[in-house]
Amino acid sequence: MTDASRDVVPVLPRPRVPVRGGGSFPAHRIYCVGRNFADHAREMGAAVPASNAERGEPVLFLKPVDALVTAGEATYPPGTGNLQHEIELVVALGHDAPPGLLGRDAAQALVFGYGIGLDLTRRDLQAAAKAKGLPWDTGKAFDQSAPVSELLPAAMVGELAARTLSLTVNGVLRQRSRLDQLIWDVPDILQALSKLYALRAGDLVFMGTPAGVGPLQPGDACLGRLDDLLELHCRITAPRV
Questions:
Q1: Which member of 68, 104, 124, 149 lies 3.0 to 4.6 Å from 15 by CB, making a disulfide possible if both were Cys?
Q2: Containing H/E element for 157?
Q3: HSE-CB of 210 using CA atoms within 13 angstroms
Q4: Which CATH number fits the domain that encloses residue 108?
Q5: Three-state SS across 182-234?
Q6: How confident is the model at residue 23 (pLDDT cuts 50, 70, 90)?
Q7: Is 239 helix (H, G, I), strand (E, B) or coil?
Q8: What is the secondary structure of 8-48 as a DSSP string?
Q9: Is 187 within the bounds of a domain?
Q10: For the range 168-174, what are the long-range contacts, defined as Cβ-Cβ under 8 Å and sequence gap of 24 or more?
């Protein structure tokens, strides 16, 4: 008689993100939003809605939760010659979503706090897949593709629209935008996700990147900022051999 409770392979630990003030945030899933800043959509050659009524549905995809990086270093991944940075606001959910569609207030009430993340992208693999009309998971969902800062409770961040997100690489400004430039704001995205997934406490949502995405090389030092509230430090290390 077999023991069904016995694990037949080692159990990997659940990734945890540090929280300012103490404690950690056990991550469940990583949802990501594409083309959520008009300027970035344009630089990627995508159409930009002229008004909210023309937005349609947001572009959504996932990364594996073990892609999270909290130690300040990410290894240059295999299979690419064009690793690119995308600085993003990260939303951390502290509650499960109630059954059914969410109202805006109910959606906002799910939020525990905020962080900064890098949506690292193998742009050449993504572009090749897009050109063939194929899924582009290999361009987005790879090991160490989601460096993230510590999390701040939502009350410490306040109104998001007035905040500015930025990224420097080796001290040179690459990306910068106010968050009022998001095409879909946080309640919008949580409402859209709730139509497709059972949102859970522990979920992280990468909210999309502004214009200025560009290549990274081993040795590059990235510094993301949300005003003077949060910083994300990440160095790209040499590929494994």
A1: 68
A2: helix 154-157
A3: 16
A4: 3.90.850.10
A5: ECCCHHHHHHHHHCCCCCCCCCEEECCCCCCCEECCCCCEEEEEECCCEEEEE
A6: very high
A7: coil
A8: SSPPPPPPEEEBTTS-EEE---EEEEES-BHHHHHHTT---
A9: yes
A10: 168/222, 168/223, 169/85, 169/214, 169/216, 169/220, 169/221, 169/222, 169/223, 170/220, 170/221, 171/221, 171/223, 174/85, 174/87, 174/212, 174/213, 174/214
In a domain? residue 201: yes
Tell me how many domains the chain contains: 1
On whether the CB atoms of residues 178 and 6 are closer than 8 A, the answer is no
Residue 8 lies in a domain: no
Evaluate whether 132 touches 229 at the Cβ level (below 8 Å): no
Which residue range forms the structural domain that includes residue 153?
16-237
What would the two tokens of residue 233 be?
A: 């430090």
Residue 17: count other Cβ atoms within 10 Å of its Cβ.
21
The answer as to whether 194 is a domain residue is yes
Per DSSP bridges, beta strands 214-215 and 83-85 are: antiparallel
206-236 residue pLDDT tens: 999 999 999 999 999 999 999 999 999 999 9
Residues in the chain: 241
Q: Give the C-alpha separation, 52 to 46, whole Å.
A: 16
Beta partners for residue 43, in sequence order? none
Which residue, 175, 173, 176, 148, is CA-closest to 163? Answer: 176
Provide the whole-model pTM.
0.95
Which pLDDT value is given to residue 139?
98
State pLDDT tens for residues 95-113: 999 888 899 999 999 999 9
